[in-house]
From TrEMBL:
Matching PANTHER family: INDOLE-3-GLYCEROL-PHOSPHATE SYNTHASE, TRYPTOPHAN BIOSYNTHESIS PROTEIN
Protein name: indole-3-glycerol-phosphate synthase
Domain Indole-3-glycerol phosphate synthase, chain residue ranges per copy: 115-378
Enzyme Commission number(s): 4.1.1.48
Top-level taxon of origin: Eukaryota
InterPro entries: Aldolase_TIM, Indole-3-glycerol_P_synth, Indole-3-glycerol_P_synth_dom, Indole-3-GlycerolPSynthase_CS, RibuloseP-bd_barrel
Organism name: Artemisia annua (Sweet wormwood)
Length: 386
């Protein structure tokens, strides 16, 4: 353990009862209170903020409770086999402890892998975004958002028309595992080239820090008149992001089973349904698949061949997760399966199609081509546009 700055977490005066502390109402109330206080502060930025000892202590207390709740949530998630922790486990918010402010740091405070790092960053990013665009304003924005389009319908229609899996073509400039994929990147041009090449739907990376994407790309593609339904490819950690994505023109959103515990997943699915978003629920292993098959109402499951913790890609993962009883259950539930990542050749497509997928999500192999329309022809070994 290395001590850089010492942070002391203490709330001896007003500890909340542990049963109440873990209730969703308490968690939401804490988060919203904190966001409200910050939003009020940012609205009045021209006026000097008088920081009284009482509002500082309220904010500090809320931060601490928020951190405590995060730890509790991680404990619940771990019982479901989820390895991704939602925030650093041993670092409570920095507290003023007199003349010395020190933060205890140890290995537990470092993300264990890239997915965990992305999730921790996303949590901070979303907290800041919520202050700029509070939920009530997004709910208003939804009234003027472009109508959502039928994502699953487009995939099914494409499969019926072409006899090969419907293509979700990914508008992706860069990725943590591959670096920059397309230097001269014009998202609208790429999107139009994909549409011309016969893509059923598009996936638009909106994360800027790790993928050099952005919500402005999603919005621009939608506003450019591209007809393919759009997947907002984000790391969803908070329901607020669903409203934001829909307001920016998304028709579908990605929900990662390795990040969201069952209760969060069910909650997100409900909100998606309420606001007209299709959920692409992503799994990578048997445990995640079994957890998602136990949840009602999922119509689209993506099997990611890429392990987002190690970057290892193996397309036989799709086959493995569709074998035996799992495959049977998927057919019974009439779930459309999307094969994701690491698909480069007609043989790869045939392999996952044989395993049972009716749709594929492809980025690297087509975005890297000078002409992405031609990239699609090469991927399938034929023209699927007509
Ligand atoms: O692609 C990455 O390096 C990555 C790293 C961490 C989290 C997610 C990541 N990628 C998301 C995806 O799974 C892919 O963008 C998508 O399935 C397309 O994959 P590909 O065809 O291999 O570009």
């Amino acid at each position: 353990m290395k001590a850089l700055r010492l942070g002391v977490y203490c709330d001896p005066i007003n500890p909340a009862p542990s049963t109440f502390k873990s209730s969703p109402i308490f968690m939401d109330a804490r988060k919203n209170n904190l966001a409200c206080i910050r939003a009020q502060q940012s609205k009045t930025k021209d006026v000097p903020i008088i920081t009284t000892s009482s509002n500082v202590s309220v904010i500090e207390e809320l931060k601490s409770k928020d951190w405590e709740i995060g730890v509790l949530k991680d404990e619940i998630a771990a019982t479901q086999g989820i390895r991704i922790r939602r925030r650093p486990p041993t670092a409570p918010p920095l507290h003023y402890v007199g003349p010395l402010e020190l933060l205890l740091q140890n290995e537990g405070n470092s993300p264990r892998n890239i997915l965990e790092e992305i999730v921790w960053n996303k949590d901070v990013e979303v907290t800041q975004m919520k202050e700029r665009y509070p939920l009530f304003s997004l709910k208003e924005a939804l009234n003027s958002a472009p109508p959502s389009r039928d994502f699953v319908g487009a995939l099914k229609a494409s499969y019926l028309r072409t006899g090969v899996p419907g293509l979700i073509a990914e508008v992706k400039k860069a990725s943590p595992s591959r670096g920059v994929l397309r230097e001269d990147f014009h998202p609208v041009e790429v999107a139009k080239a994909y549409e011309k090449g016969g893509a059923a739907c598009l996936s638009v990376l909106t994360d800027s820090k790790y993928f050099q994407g952005g919500f402005e790309n999603l919005e621009a593609i939608r506003n450019a008149g591209v007809k393919c339904p759009l997947l907002c490819k984000e790391f969803i950690v908070d329901a607020w992001q669903l409203y934001y994505g829909r307001a920016k023109g998304a028709d579908a959103v990605l929900l990662i089973a390795g990040v969201l515990p069952d209760l969060d997943m069910k909650y997100m699915l409900k909100i998606c349904k309420m606001i007209g978003l299709t959920a692409l629920v992503e799994v990578h292993d048997e445990n995640e698949m079994d957890r998602m098959l136990a949840i009602d109402g999922i119509e689209l499951i993506g099997i990611n061949n890429r392990n987002l913790e190690t970057f290892e890609v193996d397309i036989s993962n799709t086959k493995k997760l569709l074998e035996g009883e799992r495959g049977e259950k998927i057919r019974q539930k009439d779930i459309i399966v999307v094969g994701e990542s690491g698909l480069f050749t007609p043989a790869d497509i045939a392999y996952v199609q044989e395993a049972g997928v009716k749709a594929i999500l492809v980025g690297e192999s087509i975005v890297k081509q000078k002409d992405p329309t031609q990239g699609i022809i090469e991927l399938f070994g034929k023209d699927i546009s007509a």
